[in-house]
Structure formats: C-alpha cells, structure tokens
UniProtKB/TrEMBL annotation:
The record marks 63, 115, 156, 197 as: Catalytically relevant. Residues 45-188 form the SIS domain. This is Arabinose 5-phosphate isomerase KpsF. GO terms for molecular function: arabinose-5-phosphate isomerase activity; carbohydrate derivative binding; metal ion binding.
C-alpha cells in the first residue's frame, strides 16, 4: 500500500482539484435536474423507437455529434438497429440512407444548428418521425420535431460557460436512458447482448455455457438404478476424465450426481458394502444445474458461492447435455486474481 505522503497535493495544485470537483458536481446536479424533469415525452420516444421497423438514424454536429455516435453504439449493442448520419455529409448525398420506416434522433443544444435543420425537410418528405434532444421547446429544431426531449438550459461547466460539457453530458445520459429503456421493453437479455459483443472480457463473461461445457459424448452417464461399483467401472470415457458421474432415471432425465469426492468419503469411512447398493442411495439428488441459456458469469457465480466443483447442463426436459468442471473454468479465466482464488478453494 502506498504511503499517505504520496497522496499529498502541492498547495499550488489545490485550486485545480477544487475546480475539477466543482465541474463534476455541476454536471451531476444537471443530471439530477434532468431526471426530475423527464415527462411523458420520454415515454413517447421510447414507444416510437421500440416500434421502429427500420433503423434509428442519429444525427448531431460537433460535440453533440460525438455524443450521437455514442448513443448510436449503445442502441446497436442493446438490440436496436441504429446508424449515425453526419449532418454535413447528409446534404451531400448521405440523406439517401433514410427510409420511410426509420426514426430520426437529432441532437442540438441550441436547436439552431444549420446543418441539423437542413436534414429535417428530407425526413419530413419521407414522413420519418423526428425526436430531438435539445435545450428547450422554444427553438427551430423543436418546432420541426415530433417529440422534444428537453435537457434544460444548463450552464456549461467551463469557467466561461462556453465549451460543451454539461449539455453534452445531459444529452448522453438521456440517450442512454432512451436506449436502455427501449432495450428492456424489447425483452433484451444478456445472451442477446453476447451476440453483439463477443470480444474482450465482457464477451467472455457473456459467452454461452454451451460453448464452454464438456459435451454429452465426453461425459460419464449411468442409470441411477445401477450399483455404485458398476457406475464406477462401466462409465469410463476416453480422454480427459470428469470429476462426476451424471445419473439419469428411466426417462433419461438427470436425477442425481455422484462425484469422486462422494466415492472417497465412502472408502474413507469404510462403507465398502455400499459399493454393491444402487447408486441412487448415495448420490446427490436433484443437483444444482444450468440450462442451455446460461452464460459464463452464471457459472462463476455458482461455483464461487456454492463451493461445488461440477455443474450439469440440462435441456428443458432435464436431459443432460453437458457438464461444467471447475478445472476447465480456471483455465478460461483471463487473469489470475481473487476470482481464481475463490474457485480454487472449492477443490481444497
């Protein structure tokens, strides 16, 4: 741990820190005011975007354009097809991307940005509904829009109140709110998100369990009516050995689990006679399972909190389709850390 002396701030820089904190506080207060003032217009925008059968086209100039690109990315990754249209390029041919099934979202704090206003007539010709994110209802853009989402007359956070900062933060927050509420309304789930974000650590967390599990043909599976001895001797599989035998009933549905640890406990307590008893008497009945819609983060949560080493993966009718083994999971983790340590404790 670093010493407190390393965190001492030279007196000459105290004012900079104070200014930084004030900027963050000012922008945070603007967001709180925005949240308090959101009204039925937001719900209308949610419904319009949710019911859009084409694409959501987002348009903004300058800093508002950069925020628009982020909103476009958020919409795209959360289940709403979206594209960014640069207003300056739009009037030089890119307006051709517009279609009558689209929804147009335009961003302009002043509502008087010429490049933005030049896009609106084409949208109107195609009868494309326009949602604008702007300061107030009282500007040219608001007058020409179908739905107006106000961020309010906010003061920019810079000393002179000029550099777009508070206004763009409010635009981003409102855009995020719109995209995420629409996503929830569409029933967008983590496994859907994984389809659009397969890369990086986030993609790893969202990876489907079906891509990570050992498949059925590699598993030791036996009838729960067999003896413990027969289960041990007759359920062997070539290749890397799993730490558990999956037991199934007459319908082939998972009924229990018999692990190497279960066998070790029988031998340690000298219960040799049990080896010739049905395995159903000593198996773990109704073990914890994963379904085929589960994702990697579900696996980590269960293994680390329940302190178990194997999790069967079952179909909707509880037919075993795979198995998650903790020794495989540790190999999937991208880096060593507390999560790896937590999982390792399970096998100790």
């Amino acid at each position: 741990m670093s010493s407190s002396a390393e965190h001492l701030i030279p007196y000459s820089q105290v004012e900079q820190l104070r200014s930084g904190r004030e900027i963050v506080r000012q922008e945070a207060e603007a967001l709180l005011n925005l949240a308090r003032n959101m009204d039925a217009s937001f719900l209308s925008a949610v419904n319009l975007v949710k019911e859009c059968t084409g694409s959501v086209i987002v348009c903004g100039m300058g800093k508002a354009g950069l925020i628009g690109k982020k909103i476009t990315a958020t919409l795209s990754s959360t289940g709403t097809r979206a594209h960014f249209l640069h207003p300056a390029e739009a009037v030089h041919g890119d307006l051709g991307c517009l279609h009558e099934d689209d929804v147009l979202i335009v961003l302009s704090n002043s509502g008087e940005t010429e490049e933005i206003l030049n896009v609106i007539p084409t949208a109107k010709r195609f009868e494309i509904p326009v949602i604008c994110i702007t300061a107030t209802h009282h500007n040219s853009l608001a007058f020409r829009s179908d739905i107006v989402l106000e961020i309010g007359r906010v003061r920019e956070a810079c000393r002179w109140g000029l550099a777009p900062s508070t206004s763009t933060t409010a635009m981003l927050a409102l855009g995020d709110a719109l995209a995420l509420v629409v996503s929830e309304a569409k029933g967008f789930m983590p496994h859907h998100f994984a389809q659009f974000h397969p890369g990086g650590s986030l993609g790893q967390k969202l990876k489907p369990v079906t891509e990570l599990m050992r498949p059925k043909d590699q598993l030791r599976i036996a009838a729960d009516s067999e003896t413990v001895r027969d289960v041990i001797t007759q359920s062997a599989k070539p290749g890397r050995r799993t730490g558990a035998v999956l037991l199934v009933d007459e319908q082939g549905a998972l009924s229990g689990l018999f692990t190497d640890s279960d066998l070790a406990r029988l031998l340690e307590t000298r219960q040799d006679s049990v080896l010739d008893e049905p395995v159903s008497k000593v198996m773990t009945k109704e073990p914890l399972t994963l379904n085929t819609d589960s994702i990697f983060s579900d696996v980590i949560e269960i293994l680390s909190t329940r302190k178990i080493s194997e999790i069967p993966v079952v179909s909707a009718d509880r037919q075993p389709v795979g198995l998650i083994d903790i020794t495989d999971v540790i190999g999937w983790l991208p880096t060593e850390g507390s999560t790896t340590d937590d999982l390792a404790e399970t096998n100790s």
